[in-house]
Structures are given as C-alpha cells and as structure tokens.
Automatic annotation (TrEMBL), chains A, B:
GO terms for molecular function: carboxy-lyase activity; pyridoxal phosphate binding. Homodimer. It comes from Oryzias sinensis (Chinese medaka). InterPro entries: PyrdxlP-dep_de-COase (IPR002129), PyrdxlP-dep_Trfase (IPR015424), PyrdxlP-dep_Trfase_major (IPR015421), Pyridoxal-P_BS (IPR021115). This is Glutamate decarboxylase like 1. Gene3D superfamilies: 3.90.1150.170, Type I PLP-dependent aspartate aminotransferase-like (Major domain). Belongs to the group II decarboxylase family. Its cofactor is pyridoxal 5'-phosphate.
Amino acid sequence: GRETKRSLCKLTDSRETDSPRRATEIKCCPAVRDGPALREPAVEMSAAERFIHEALEVIIDEAVKKATDVQEKVCDWQSPEKLRELLDLELKDGGESDSKILQHCKNAIRYSVKTSHPRFFNQLFAGLEPYSMVASFITEAVKTSLYTYEVAPVFTLMEDAVLKKMMELIGWDEGGDGIFNPGGSMSNMYAVNLARYRFCPDIKEVGLYNAPRLVMFTSQEGHYSISKAAALLGLGTKNVYAVPSDDRGKMIPSALEEKIELARSEGAVPFFVNATAGTTVFGAFDPVDEIADICERHSLWLHVDACWGGAALVSNQHKHLLKGIHRADSVAWNPHKMLMACLQCSAFLIKDKTSLLQRCHSAKASYLFQQDKFYDVSYDTGDKSVQCSRKPDAFKFWLMWKALGSSELERRVDRALAMARYLAQTVKKREGFHLLMKPEYANVCFWYVPPALRGLPDGPELWRKLHTVAPVIKERMMKTGSMMIGYQTHGDKPNFFRMVVINPQVSKQDLDFVLDEIHSLGKDLR
Amino acid sequence: GRETKRSLCKLTDSRETDSPRRATEIKCCPAVRDGPALREPAVEMSAAERFIHEALEVIIDEAVKKATDVQEKVCDWQSPEKLRELLDLELKDGGESDSKILQHCKNAIRYSVKTSHPRFFNQLFAGLEPYSMVASFITEAVKTSLYTYEVAPVFTLMEDAVLKKMMELIGWDEGGDGIFNPGGSMSNMYAVNLARYRFCPDIKEVGLYNAPRLVMFTSQEGHYSISKAAALLGLGTKNVYAVPSDDRGKMIPSALEEKIELARSEGAVPFFVNATAGTTVFGAFDPVDEIADICERHSLWLHVDACWGGAALVSNQHKHLLKGIHRADSVAWNPHKMLMACLQCSAFLIKDKTSLLQRCHSAKASYLFQQDKFYDVSYDTGDKSVQCSRKPDAFKFWLMWKALGSSELERRVDRALAMARYLAQTVKKREGFHLLMKPEYANVCFWYVPPALRGLPDGPELWRKLHTVAPVIKERMMKTGSMMIGYQTHGDKPNFFRMVVINPQVSKQDLDFVLDEIHSLGKDLR
C-alpha cells in the first residue's frame, strides 16, 4: 500500500532526508556533540556484582532460612497506614545508597507474608521448593521472552518437553499442543477462545455481531475466571449457565444436560463446557468421564479446569479423581499449586494437532516472526499467545521435575492428601470442631464453635453468631503471626475455615498446633 | 439457593456424613494409618539452603559476570535438534543429584541468549539492571500473589506508590487508577475492554449480540496486540481500522478523522482510538495532542500505547515526544523496556477515578474478597484484574527507582537516545550503510549494502538481492555469537536491520564494532 512508491528513494536518499532538523537535534543532545559521556560504559559492573552478592545473602537469610523456620512468624501484620510509614515508599529525584537499598530489601521480605512457612495454609500454593526457586532466579537473571527460538532457545525446548510430559500424564497418547500462561485464569480464557474459534473461525475477523447467542456451562462451584472470560470475550456473563453441583461440590451430569437443553430451547447455541477437577473451595472433582459423554453427544468443547486438581495425575493412587480427562479438548493445570513450582507456572494444554492454538491467536507480526529465518520457525511459539512478551515459566517446573523425578512428585502429592485426611479425622474427633464434609482432595473445610456457642440450638441465631467467629480468629492469628488459614462463606453457610495442606515441611504437629491455636484464639468468643 | 436447607444439618452432623467410605479411605492412605511418614517434615531445609547457595554462585558467575562481559559471546547458537541433545531434556521417574542439577543450571544459562550483554540489540529490552534483578529475585523468593492485601501487603503498597508516580509523570494531576499486567499486550487489551465497558456496561453481562458494530482505530504502525485484543474480545480484527501514518511512521490525524467518518457512514460505532508513543519498528510517536482533539470531538476513548516510548516521560529533554498524553483515558507503559526493569514490568494506567477498572473486571469471588475482613478491603486489588494470581511486578521498578532516583533514570534515557543519534550519524557517514530515516527515538533502522551490490541501479533487482542480505548476516552473527540485532521487512521495503540501543553498558566502541562486524560478516554477499 502506502510504502509501494517510497522504498527505493528512501533507500538511496536517506542521507538527505533528515538534514533540516540536524542543528536542533545536536543542540538537544550535547552528549553527542561533546562525546565523552558515550565513550565509556555508564555503569560499573563490578559494583553491580557486589550489590547482587550482598542482596543474595539477605534473600537466603530472610526469605529462605527465616521464612521456613517454624519458630518465626508467618507474617508481621501491619495495617496499610502503618506499613506505608515503615516502608518509606516515596520515589525521589535522588537515588539511595546500596546499604539503604539492602535495608529496603530486608523490609520488603520482613513485612511480606511467608508463604513458605510451615504454618501457611491460606492459599492453593504454599511451601518453598528450592529447585523451582533457583530456576525462577535463573529465568529472571537470563531475562528473556519466549516469542522466538532465537532469543529463548533453551526455554522453548524446555517448555516443549514439559508440555509433552504433562500431555502424557493426561493420557493424550498422540500428543497435542500447549503453552504456559500467566495464571490459570488466562488458561481458562484461552480454552473459551479456542472453543469459539473452532465453532466459528470467522468470529476472529468479524466479531460476534452476526453470531447466534453462544452459551457456556460450568458448575456453580467452578472458578470465577470462566465468568471473567465470558465478560472479556464479549460473550456476556449471563451466557455462562451455572450447572448445579451435588452436596460434595461435584457437577451433576444430568443437570448439565438439562441446562444444555434449556439453552437450545431458548434458541441459543451451546459451545463450551468447563469441568472442574479440584474446585477452589471444597476441592471437588466433577465427573469428567460422564461430562465427556454429554459433550460428545452434543458436540461441545470440553475443557477441564484442573489448575488445582491436575497434580493428582502424578499419583497412581489418586489419578482416578480425573478419570476421563484424556477425553477433554483442553486442560488448564497449574504446577504452581500442589506441585509447588514457583509462581507463576500455569500450563494450558490442547488436544488439537492442527495448530488451532496458533491459528486462533496469530497476528503474524513481521518484525518478530520473519519467515526467512535460518532455523525452523515452527519453534517460534509467540504467535500461539495473546501476549507478546511471555515468561519462560515452564523452566521452573522442568528443573524441579528433573531434580525430584516423577516418583518424588508422586510421593509429595500422596503425602499432602494423606495429611489432609489426617487433619479431617482430627477435626472430627475434636470437641467444638465440625467438618463441612470429608475432603476429596487437599481442602479441609470446618467450623470452630467456641464453648459459649456450643449449647445453642441449631438455628439462625447460632449461624449468625458462628458467622462472626472465623473473621475474628483470622484477625487474631494475623496479628499474632502464628499461622494463616483462609475463611469464607459458601451459599448461606456461615463463615468457615478452608485449610489447604500442600507443603511437605508440614508435619502432623503443625496440624495439631493449628487446631489448638484456633481454640486458643477463639475460645472467648460468644 | 441449593444450600438453603443443608447448612445446619451439615454443621451438626458432620461426623456422620462420610462414615460409609471411611474403611476404603484408610486403605488408600497407608501413611495415615501407619503414621510415621506424617510425623516429620518430608524435606530437609538445610540441604535446600545449601543447594540454593551453590546455585546462586552459578547464577552470579554465569548469568551476571559472563553474561555482561564483552569478551564473551552474546549467544552460543545451537540448532533445536543439537540443543535437545545437549540439554538432556527428558523428565524421568527418578530424580537427579544436586551436582547434576547445577550442571543443568549452567547449561540453561550457557545456551540462553545473553540479553544483558553489551552487544545485544535485538529486542526492545536489553541490559542488566542489578537493583531490578534483586527485586525480581525477592518476588520469586517471597512467592506471593497480588490479589489481596492480606497475602501481599508490601507489594500492594509498592504497586500503588509506583502507579501514582507514573501518573504524576503522565500529568494526571488528580491521579487515577492502574494495575501491573503480564505484558503490554495485556495492557492494551485492558484498554479496549474498559473503553467498551464505558461505552456500554451491559456488554459485560449480555455480550455483544445486540450491540452495534463497534470500531476501533490504530495506526498502521501500531502494535499487533490491538488486533489480538479485537480478536479475543469478540470485536473482530476487521473492525480495527488502520489509520495511515506519514513517512516518519506517525499517525496522520486527518486520516484518523476520515476513518472515523467512514465507520460512521457504514453505520458502525467508533469507540476507541489507540495512539502509539514509540512504534515497534521505527520508534515513531503519534501526535497525541492532535489525536486527543479528535477523540474529544467524537467522544472516543483515547488510549496511548506508550509501552516503548513512555520512558521519555522521565526526561525533561525528551518528554515533548508525548505531548498531550495527560489527555489520554488510559496509558500502557512498560518499564521493562527502555527503563530496564526486569521482565515483566508493564503498567496499565487509567485516568478514571470511579473504579471503572474494578467494575469492568470484577467477579466478586467470595472465597478471596470477603467483605468482613478486619482491614480496609479497598486495598485488595485482585478484582481489578482478569487474572486471579498476579505477580508483584511493580516492586522490580520500585526498588531500582529508589536506588537510582528519577534523575538517574533520566540520564539513562538521555544517554540511550544520544547513543541512537550517534549510531544514526555514523551509519550515514559509512560507505555501504543506508539509514531508513532519522531516528525519533532509540530505534535505528538501516540497510547494509555489500560492495558487490553497490554498483547496481535502483530497482527490483537490487531490492531482491538486498532483501537476502540481512538474514544471512543475522545467521552469521548468531553462529559467531558476536552480537544480536533484529532485521525485518516493512511494507515492500527489503529486509533491513532494526537496532535498538538501551543498555548503559554500551559505549560508542560497541556501536562502531557493530558496523564493522556487519561489514565483515556481509562483505562477500552478492
């Protein structure tokens, strides 16, 4: 188009094109005129090395040793207002000395929550995995991006190796495709976008304007990212039909079929089903095999959100939880959760072998994905992504897998799940503790009922009072720094604790401590 | 709904609910029955510390010292097939010894491209920034996610501080809102989604089915992520209207106005304009002030993609390039490019102060964003994001800014741009080198014409031959490992080099070396 007439004269005339502004230009850049500032490097690398060395000592002392020491606090809670003062946040015109910066590093670690601590049970990640941590340091130090083989040869191949191994565990004997994403929510969005692209590739170009109303299905216990995907992708959150789950939190297959029929009867077009393998709250597994039957019957894309539960695939004892996952069209699986890879490490896997992932997301930027490179450009993964720059997260999983082997990964998962069962059994035996349900995975949900409430009859008054217990205990545990456990409501259930056991540094003693501590922090509540 | 009748009996009957399966359960988990495996931690932290220590020495030697040593290679090129063998990628059932893992670490660094090397000019990032590197190590070691203040108190406040300071530089005197994203492409997508949400909030719930055809505008030189956003968001890539740019690569405001009229005349609804501050190829700046006039007149959302050019805002000498940016509704700005923060460090900023960001993206997950917490939950930033888990990338910028001060950031930008001007002047003077255009920013684009082609008359034959020159020189520089520079076509222009100068370790000598080396690698080509 526009360039057709210009390239040649540009080519030969380039010496002249900019002459009119040269004088001002030089005035603006005295360094160019005066020279010396550009003759030498403007940084001193040996000073940089010294600083990095000192800082690494701080990191080992504070973020490794202290952070995993059960004698230390899990967190040194400060209110936002107080913490602002302690951190000296202001960015100024002048810089600060290295010793001050080291102090900032210490403070940053000190006032951060120690998610590696054996008493941290607040999230679906926990614990320190040394090999993965080292790998993540390397990815930071090497500082590269995964778009092309050319700038990230090692990490491109490692991502490929990890994805292949994960697909093997899923049971896709003929392989597939995949990519690591910044978090499981992104992976779930990719799934929706791919399903839509397979359903109607034209939407990529023309948008949804002439499309029929597309409907997706997920259980009421599914992760909120499915809904966020519907919003972002222009599909609309109302077109996510929530399928009822049973009282264990598992999607009811017949209810899925009913919702599909409902959508059809409304004139809408079902296209996507999300099955959850390991729900966020209860750790429940949807019956993938039965859901796959329904998807096959109705020609729907089956995505399995196994971000949390995918880890069970490494365990011979527990992989039955995901029975049927090999029938999925796509899978999201976050090794940064149960498998303890450093944040973030989230794989999106797809069974398709016709480069659907690339066709769906590609933009073919000529400055990055030149086709006349001297190597096989099918190694350039950038156009599979909606990102441009992308972190080499797979390496964090590759290195730890290499170090531990599949067998140790399996032992860790088995141990974490055994620990969750031990905790559930202990909760059941303890006075004043009530299990919501037997854990299917590593989520143990329970109420603590303080002595003063134990005599109350079942009913709204008890619930109302009980509802306030967990938040107060949470506040007290944070301020004491003794441990961290999440709490929440669910439906009309009063607040309960959701405790997640992952970290292999955790022993029975820690779990016993937790229950003692909850009682000790909450026994006066009424 | 579903839970209404159940919570109470669950609460009191929990000890009984799971009894039928208990026997099998215990059989599955011998560890629970046998006990000892759960009594002690399953990891030995002192061994972990030892390993981390040794690995950090490797990182300093290989990824800091060697990687920045001009005597070392920029890359140790291996073909994918050969590299596969060298890396021993296979993941096995058994683990490997720490010494073997350290060897894998060395190999991973050795065969990675040294983007910190003073001869790396291939991307819009380069160089080693020691403070940012240390900060990124800390974020990895601390291993947390930004959704709630509770689990990331320090990084929440630091993100806030950095965003505020960046908004100050943009010139939003009354502040605004913002969030760090995994890359500028995500930030650009956020902008499109917010513009759409402001235009019609209902689309979040009901989708695009009953919406008019929405049209967005970006220059032909704009980044491909705008097009990727249109695809992902269900708006359609055809509804991105490419506005012509002038021969410097700057959007032509009158052409924008024409395109807006065109869309209107077709019955479509314009809603979003992307102005680029620092285009990917030429480093051109769209005239933001004039574009803002047009957006005001037509009530369109103005987004400025300043991922690359935003850095000029820290320089009194160069900030005029972004004149008018304070009038933008949103800005994307990646400190990981010119400002050298570690990858990734990408800010998305929005002028709105009515929590549009949160309203547009929120899903209000009850397990994470409880409203009965004991602190001010407006500090929980998670619902501003389409991600769930999110990295504390702002810290990588905060710590280096604290160490260097705004004044040193400014000096670095001024120096990089002076260096680009020096390079351009040198290219112009050298026989056989042809500048495409005078650089407006840090992108220097030029052809190298080997002696054998210098006599050829302008015309298709010259172009065709010239087109093959850069790829061959690129192959040779990679295989020599002497330097890395990108090349590409543009419109119908034959392949040219795009060289980007960022790293303060680079001196004039390095630039002179580059031109000598190109000649030396390509002088035999014909």
